[in-house]
Amino acid sequence: MSGQVNSLLVEMLAEQKKQTAILERMAEQQGLLIQALAEEQVDQDPDARPLTYMDGTPCR
Questions:
Q1: What is the CB-side half-sphere exposure of residue 34 using CA atoms within 13 A?
Q2: For residue 45, how far is the Cα from the chain centroid?
Q3: Please, are residues 39 and 33 in contact by the beta-carbon 8 Å criterion?
Q4: Which of 6, 17, 32, 41 has its CA 20 to 30 A from that of 52?
């Protein structure tokens, strides 16, 4: 019984490590996306009307 519990705990730990790695990659990618969006908006007037909606479609 103890061997089964240990095996299950090892499997759970391995899965948590995988999930943590995925979350870290997601956080890094989101940070890069935020930086890219911020750099894209440097030349824009913050008071100007937007040219596109958040989904990318042009404003009318």
A1: 6
A2: 27
A3: no
A4: 32
